Amino acid sequence: MAKQMYLEFPLKTEHAEDFSDLCNSSLGFSLTKKQPGFISAEWMISTSENGKKCFHLWERWESEEHFTAYMRTPERIVGSKFEISLRKWGDGETKVFWGIVNFV
Asked: Is residue 45 a contact partner of residue 16, using CB atoms and an 8 Å limit?
């Protein structure tokens, strides 16, 4: 049974466009889509009433283990270009939630 992951990642306002560009780059979702166990992804960047930016991500994976293995790839580990950018552009705690996907 597929697993749904939802992630919230607060962004520094001045880096929201940089982050969007990263998501659309070869290090972004085009890489994610090639991973074993990956099913689908949707994302958006919202702006709150006080001007704060937040990245929202919905992904489906065959299992949490597939996602964990993906996050251990050279392109995602600590010290990778992607991870360094996240640290520099983030503006708070990342929240991740998992649930089961039921198709009717």
From this structure: yes
